[in-house]
Amino acid sequence: MQIGIFSVGDVTPDPTTGRTPTENERIKATVAIAQHAEEVGLDVFATGEHHNPPFIASNPTATLAFIGARTERIILSTATTLITTTDPVLIAEDYAKIQHLLDGRVDLMMGRGNTGPVYPWFGKDIRQGINLAVENYGLLRRLWTEDVVDWEGRFRTPLQGYTSTPRPLDGVPPFVWHGSIRSPEIAEQAAYYGDGFFHNHIFWPAAHTQQMVELYRRRFEHYGHGPADTAIVGLGGQFFMRPNSQDAVDEFRPYFDNAPVYGHGPSLEDFTEATPLTVGSPQQVLERTLSFREYVGDYQRQLFLVDHAGLPLKTVLEQLDLLGEILPAMRAGFAEGRPAHVPDAPTHASLLAKAEAAALQEVSA
Amino acid sequence: MTGIVVVSAGLSVPSSTRLLADRLTEATTAALGEAEVTRIELRDLAHQLTDRLLTGFATGELAEAIEAVRGADGLVVVTPVYSGSYSGLFKTFVDVLEPGALDGKPVLIAATAGTARHSLVLDHALRPLFSYQRAVVVPTGVFAATDDFGDAGLEDRIQRAAGELAALAGKVDASGTAHRRRSVDDELADPTPFEELLRRASQA
Question: Distance from the CA of A158 to the CA of which of A124, A175, A248, A282 falls in 20 to 30 A?
Answer without folding.
Answer: A175
